[in-house]
Amino acid sequence: MSDLSHIRNFSIIAHIDHGKSTLADRFIQICGGLADREMEAQVLDSMDLERERGITIKAHSVTLYYKANDGKTYQLNFIDTPGHVDFTYEVSRSLAACEGALLVVDAGQGVEAQSVANCYTAIEQGLEVMPVLNKMDLPQADPDKVKAEIEHIIGIDASDAVPCSAKSGMGVEDVLQRLVQTIPAPEGEIDAPLQALIIDSWFDNYLGVVSLVRVRHGRVKKGDKILVKSTGKVHQVDSVGVFSPKHTVTVDLKAGEVGFIIAGIKEILGAPVGDTLTLSSTPDVPMLPGFQRIKPQVFAGLFPVSSDDFEDFRDALQKLTLNDAALQYEPESSDALGFGFRIGFLGMLHMEIIQERLEREYDLDLITTAPTVIYEVVLKNGDVVHVDNPSKLPDVSSIDEMREPIVQANILVPQDHLGNVITLCIERRGVQRDMQFLGSQVQVRYDLPMSEVVLDFFDRLKSVSRGYASLDYSFDRFQAANLVRLDVLINGDKVDALALIVHRDNAHYKGRVLTEKMKELIPRQMFDVAIQAAIGGQIVARTTVKALRKNVLAKCYGGDVSRKRKLLEKQKAGKKRMKQVGNVEIPQDAFLAVLKVDG
Ligand SMILES: Nc1nc2c(ncn2[C@@H]2O[C@H](COP(=O)(O)OP(=O)(O)OP(=O)(O)O)[C@@H](O)[C@H]2O)c(=O)[nH]1
Fold first, then answer.
1. Helix (H) or strand (E) holding 441
2. Helix boundaries (H) for 380-493
3. Which residues pair with 533 in a beta bridge?
4. Nearest 5°: phi and psi at 112?
């Protein structure tokens, strides 16, 4: 038997902002992973973008050594998980590498829907879940109420939940003590053939592909020849190690441990997340149960503003896909926007993050079209097709039935705001399935069309409940609905990239609001621009952007050269995110005007 009794692999499950990163930083401090002066604010959120937005996007890991009261030194492998509803899939793959999870709940806020969903995933995967009450320093902390909520809503014993304040450090040692007692050590055989699960892979410009793995059995070291089970390819290991939290090379990685492997894999899809690694000498080692293929829920076309950037755009997407298994794309060509890609995202936040990363890290100027969900269309000839692009919807005369995706939404909300939440769900064509009163909170379940949820439902829910309601949802089924395509015409020409699929009952209203919004967003040109919305051949709304009378330079009276230059530069910068469609320049905002159409 291998002795793995000193290892603890764990994740933290927490609703966004309940203090997961702050707590992790405390762990690092206590275990001496970084000297204080090296301690950047929240080292775990390493991407700039993450830090700016204050959310954790990628799963990371940290290996720490903790000397417990029993005199023993434990190796703690902490695998970070994101908290936002768009990134649930990353949580399940991080949990697959752990024996336990800390459920961190803000003692002032109480349990939120996202933590409930993630806790269930952990329990299903057989993990030990240990509740921790954070933010105990705040005057509004109410540990008894929150313990009762954990028991009522999640159904686990919270009687000895550990109170702490990640901010002040109070109780954090107790959390670590309890962790080593409560969370079981991993099981595995060091002498068995190598079997390791890829939890995450990313592309590093200097090192090539770096994979974060959980070793189930065996050991792996520099010089070993590893076999990637799904591709059948063999690579020689350049280095293995752990993040402590700095990248630290070690002699080997053994059963039970979590760390990185670098094996000179240059091919971007050479080490897929969820895959199994073994040694080339033991090719018969079975695959570990992989992760579910993640299905994107929101699709949008992305097009380079300058068609010269198309190849760079393709390269950038290839690189991003390695870091982000959820990102899926295929080439798309649009009459209006030229060549680009149709990209599938987990949700709107994911879409914004990818667009920002493409623009910032890869210096691309892109136009994003209105996001849509995927529809199931039954044709008269019996074929069933899936449509993720409204402009590709087959001709109405050939369609027998259109089906839209329905999600099951689970909402937790304090009783005071229940009425508003129900009103919102009804507006969004929701059907109530269940309602339970759990202490001061109410749990309501709704079936809602996915198209009504993915765009702005989360923001609306927060605003009608003063920030208190929380949401978790998952795809359930396709269901027949009376859907139509709403086309947008600019000066009489149908613009494929602006088409939408909407419910017939809302189509007129949406068409009106959309054309009004677009009128505000399309700059005045030298001629009138007519914006129309149409269903089939029928125009349902129309607005006009009146022609511009004066030239911007006319204001400058000829004399002031620097002012003239400034104005021209300003115009040029403004142009970056514009696309010439026919003879009209349409800015990015106008393509996303649908996001501003409520209801
Ligand atoms: N008063 C108080 N504030 C805390 C405590 N722990 C965290 N915070 C604050 O709560 C906010 C959110 O903390 P984070 O650690 O970033 O939360 P998170 O759960 O990691 O959030 P994501 O990484 O976005 O999922 C920050 O402003 C912290 O300073 C605590 O114990 N007490």
1. strand 441-449
2. 418-427, 450-454, 457-464
3. 488, 541
4. -120, 155
What is the ipTM score, two decimals? 0.97
CA 454 to CA 53: how far, in whole Å? Answer: 20
Q: Give 98 Cα–ligand 1 centroid separation in angstroms.
A: 23
On whether 363 is known to bind a ligand per the annotation, the reply is no
Whole-number Å distance between alpha carbons of 80 and 104: 13
Taking the centre of ligand 1 as the mean of its atom positions, its distance from the CA of residue 562, in whole angstroms, is: 48
Residue 35 Cα, ligand 1 centroid: separation in angstroms? 21
Is residue 43 within 8 A of residue 21, CB to CB? The reply is no
Q: CA 585, CA 577: separation in Å to the nearest integer?
A: 10
Best mutation site among 12, 13, 21 for ligand 1, i.e. most ligand atoms within 8 A of its Cβ? 21
- For tokens 């899939």, the residue is 89
Q: How far apart are CA 383 and CA 411, in angstroms?
A: 36
pLDDT tens-digit profile of 149-201?
A: 999 888 899 999 999 999 999 999 999 999 999 999 999 999 999 999 988 88
Q: What does pTM read for this prediction?
A: 0.71
Q: Which residues line ligand 1 (CB under 6 A)?
A: 14, 16-22, 54-56, 83, 134-135, 137-138, 165-167
Phi, psi of 470 (to 5 degrees): -130, 160
Amino acid identity of residue 565, one-letter, is R
